[in-house]
Amino acid sequence: MIPQQQFRRPTPYEDPAPYPSPRGSGIPLLILLVLLFGLGIGIWSIFFRGDQTIIPGGSPSVESGKWQAVFLNGGQVYFGHLEFGGGEYAVLKDVYYLRAATSLQSTSSQAGFDLVKMGGELHGPEDTVYLVKSSMLFWENLRPDSRVVQTIAGYMARSGGQ
Fold first, then answer.
1. Residue 37 lies in a domain
2. Residue 37: DSSP 8-state
């Protein structure tokens, strides 16, 4: 004869035997989250430094000591010192733009353009333009020997650097 064992079913109000938590305490998870946050801040600061923005892949982009040309969706071209921030706007300072030179005497099919310093318009804008990044087709760093940069340098020399 087999000895009978007593099996007892727990009642619905009884706490079952405590089992160890499969995760343990939450401290290792908290440490992991803090480390990931720190890593994210470090990566962000590498790609968005104040003096130069870096495109992922290591290509240098805006060089703070150079002039940039910004080409917009509507066909406008602006020249100045470009800065990218974290928001949806890029900032262009020391702004110049091209204006078609109109001459009633001209019979040439070649259009002439004047480089105009922003700020002297009728409505009196400041010398900073805030551009929606999605409206920019592309931008370029300009060489110091470009005609645009040389014209700007000549204007600044004549106007006392303004």
1. no
2. H
> What distance in Å separates the CA atoms of residue 71 and residue 64, rounded to the nearest whole number?
18
Could you give the number of structural domains in the chain?
Answer: 1
CATH of the domain at 120: 2.30.30.100
What are the pLDDT digits (tens) for 4-58? 666 666 666 665 555 555 555 667 777 877 778 777 777 766 666 544 444 444 4
Inside any domain, residue 85 = yes
In a domain, 101, yes or no: yes
Distant-in-sequence, close-in-space partners of 108: CB < 8 Å, separation ≥ 6: none
Residue with tokens 């030179």: 101
Q: And the tokens for 45? A: 């600061």
Q: Measuring CA to CA, which residue among 133, 156, 119 is closest to residue 71?
A: 133
Domain span at residue 84 reads: 53-159
* 42 falls within a domain: no
Sign of CA dihedral 57, 89, 137, 116: negative
Extract the runs of DSSP E, i.e. beta strands, from the chain.
52-55, 59-63, 68-72, 77-84, 89-100, 113-117, 128-132, 136-141
Contact by Cβ (8 Å): 56, 43: no
Task: Please count the CA atoms within 13 angstroms of the CA of 99 that sit on its side-chain side.
Answer: 10
